[in-house]
Amino acid sequence: MTTPLPRIPRRQFLRRAVAAATLLPVACASAPKPKRYAANEKLRLGVIGVANQGGSNLNAVASEDIVALCDVDRDYLAAASSQFPNARSFVDFRELLTDDSLGLDGVVISTPDHTHAPATVMALKRRLAVYCEKPLTHTVEECRTLQNLAAKHRCVTQMGTIIHAEPNYRRVVEAIRAGVIGPITQVDCWCPKSWCCAKPTPGAVPPERLNWPLWQGPIPDAPYVEGIAPANWRGHWSYGTGTLGDMGCHILDLPFWALDLAGPKGDRMIVAADGPPVDAMGCPEWLEATWVFPNAAPPKGDPLIVRWFDGGRIPPTVQEIGAKDRQDYFGRYMVCFQGTHGFLLANYGEMKILMVPDAVLPEPTIPASPGHHREWLDAIRSGADTGDGAPLCRFEYSAPLTEMVLLGTVAYRSRSQITWDRPLPVLANDPALKPWLTERYRDGWSLT
Ligand SMILES: NC(=O)c1ccc[n+]([C@@H]2O[C@H](COP(=O)([O-])OP(=O)(O)OC[C@H]3O[C@@H](n4cnc5c(N)ncnc54)[C@H](O)[C@@H]3O)[C@@H](O)[C@H]2O)c1
Known about the structure:
Layout: H1 10-21, E1 44-48, H2 53-60, E2 65-70, H3 74-83, E3 88-90, H4 93-97, E4 106-109, H5 116-125, E5 129-132, H6 140-153, E6 157-159, H7 167-177, E7 184-191, H8 212-216, H9 242-251, H10 253-258, E8 268-274, E9 288-293, E10 304-310, H11 316-325, H12 329-332, E11 335-339, E12 343-346, E13 351-354, H13 372-382, H14 395-414, E14 418-421, H15 426-429, H16 434-437
Parallel strand pairs: 1-2, 1-4, 2-3, 4-5, 5-6, 7-10
Antiparallel strand pairs: 7-11, 8-9, 8-14, 9-10, 11-12, 12-13
Helix pairs in contact: 5-6, 6-14, 9-14
Nicotinamide-adenine-dinucleotide binds at residues 48-54, 70-73, 76, 93, 110-113, 115, 133-134, 160, 162, 214-215, 217, 229-231, 246.
């Protein structure tokens, strides 16, 4: 399949050229190196969002000194406090993040997507280490802000894409880079889940245990929606990012890593998406998105194409090879790399190579991870914000990944094909996309 590359109108081209000429490099670190800690010194951590994924993250860092817990749900907070009776309890993360008496070294943020950025920005400005859940942010602009602040303040960061630390992703990355199926021309990714279709529930009242204004945080006040928390906020554009935003950071992480799309190959992308008619409130039941990377074209080949299918949509390539082999590749895997010699199918824990009968996997070269949370804790101790010893999903990597994922939702919601030059400031790419690239915060909340 070849997707024609659109011509950039002259006026837009000139605007981009001016913006590029005045662009500051992202990694303009101005702060001293991060503090180092003795191997046996316990880190003083605050945990924001303490139930469900927050509860898993809390347990994963429980070997450290948990000095502060924050949750807007009274019952969740009480349960976590009984587990860590020495930790101070907060309902508003802004109070936790401005309380110097806590002597924090880092924070773990596992709230819904729309509150990742405001909490993380406050933490980075205080030069705290941050472990933040995926997707890193709710909007593309927030994502850039976090990437720039983490670099500027030299903070040790990690996004919660825990599969990145598993062995199978490492083996797939090595196989793709070794050319086991030849240069890659296309990658299909899919997820049958469907986080969607939020509708208002007039007259619904938040449960007493939930502080609804603080749960909404920076988002302009809106009526409570029955059953929105926990978890179901994923299908609301105001708070979540649909199935693509929820699962894309895990699944698209694999081609993003293997094909080095955090680097210059991923600097330019053309993004398009399709789905049911766009709803202002609810995310779609299904969505298909395509990213075309002209800079990542195999030698003498067409541009690299990465595609996403959710809500049960089946990538045609996978359907076709499955039909030929009488195998349900769609049901078992979630990524299909198409190379010039064959296919490589992968899920979180296994891979299968098709049409290369004599395929030999390369010797492992990517070192094993000590564990996704442990990478972050070890890096805090050794003061490794970037380079050797730094967490692999630090914001330098995970912000561009999240940016790619979120641009799929922007293309869908704006019903437009986007030509995106990542080295440009967010709004220099196309100011008309502002409503979908940025967040309108309510009074009292801002990223600055
Ligand atoms: N890495 C993974 O594998 C994985 C798995 C599940 C969820 N997640 C991510 O974790 C995050 C949370 O997902 P979830 O399913 O646990 O959501 P959830 O709604 O079930 O839980 C969120 C928790 O944060 C609390 N919370 C909400 N707003 C808060 C605020 N403003 N301040 C303090 N606490 C607040 C809630 O009360 C609850 O305890 C999301 O970003 C999600 O994408 C990651």
